[in-house]
Amino acid sequence: MFDTGEIEETSSNTEVAWLLQTAGQIAKIRRDLTDTTRADVITALEVVKSASAATQAVATADLHTSRRAERAAKGLPKRQWDIGVASEIGLARRDSANKGGRHLGFARVLVDEMPNTLARLACGDLSEWRATVIVRDTFGLSREDRALVDRELCSDPATLRGKSDSQVSATARAAVVRIDAEALVRRASKAVGDRRVTSRPAPDTMAYLSALLPVKQAVCVHATLMRDSAAILGAGDERTKSQIMADLLVERVTGLSTATAVPVTVNVVLSDEALLGTGSEPAEVEGYGPVPTDLVIRWLHDDDAKNELRRLYANPETGALTAMESKSRGFPTGILRMTKFRDKICRTPWCGAPIRHGDHVRSVANGGDTTFDNSAGLCEACNYAKEADGWTTTPDKNQSGELHSYRITTPTGHHFRSTAPALPKPLPHHNIDIVDSWSVEDKLVQIIWAA
Asked: Which GO terms describe its molecular function (predicted)?
């Protein structure tokens, strides 16, 4: 979906050039080695990865410090000093803005508060994940108390040598209890406010539904499902216990008598060719991704579901969305709907978060129009980040039928291009006569599937 510029190797970029050259040499390590040497290579590469993570953390913290100083020197209010920095880190690491924020938080703690942990990471005694565990488990401590844990755990490399992830975590938490037991109590009280329910795609057209709950509630929910599923299974039900638990969860949350009659709209986009059984291109479920067309056809025959069709118009060669049939005449609503169908997920490279905002690529303040060509679907974090000092977004001059694209420029001058994904391609022109009720040349079908 995204095209990004390569790193520019200039004479002033000697460190970057050396790093890229070193990476190239590592990738060329011979394969005709003894098993002893292979094991040593594996260990050495772990040291290299840890040292790289430490250097990356230092560079991240330094970039954050520099950006804040630059904005302070410009006289910007303090509340604007940090805006967009997490997104900038995410783009640099080819990651989402959300993960960029986590990378930034991790780096600041290591560099500013836990120098011994940083040193253990730099020399390969700690992996990046185990350093992350220590940072995570000392959250809530004062700067001074965190420094005490840092010295206790990481001033001597032998302290954590040979310990597993869980043992490192247990050691860190034990140190926190000794130094400030109330910090754990405060964290537990705060954590209750973080309770939530989320979903994310899983393989084979499934999805994970996760609930973060206080432990007594989570155990109660699971125990209740275990108890009731055992009773149903004992009555001769042919489903497995896990299947019954899953169905009970759906039925009790939705209030329905069966787990299949879910009263929620599901937007599915597939080509007219696939709908008619002559094509094999996958369908697209909003908020999930590609699914087999045969599965959608099966959904259409579900007696518990009501199906509505809406025509979208796409270029048959490129899959670029060009128009949409809609009963609504509200201009902003129509543009937002088309933008979501076109972009599917946040348009920032490597983000992947759901679309929350319809954004002007070229801002209204800079002369941008409220048009489909000047729109982009973004998550909340990415939309706020692009408004920060030093960020610009420039729409490309797309020709008719081309996929929508625009360029993002960060405060460091790095360029990233965002190109909208292609929709399922409709019937080619020479096959259009088999759909005698449609006369336009560009088509695909959106199915609104609901109980």
From this structure: endonuclease activity
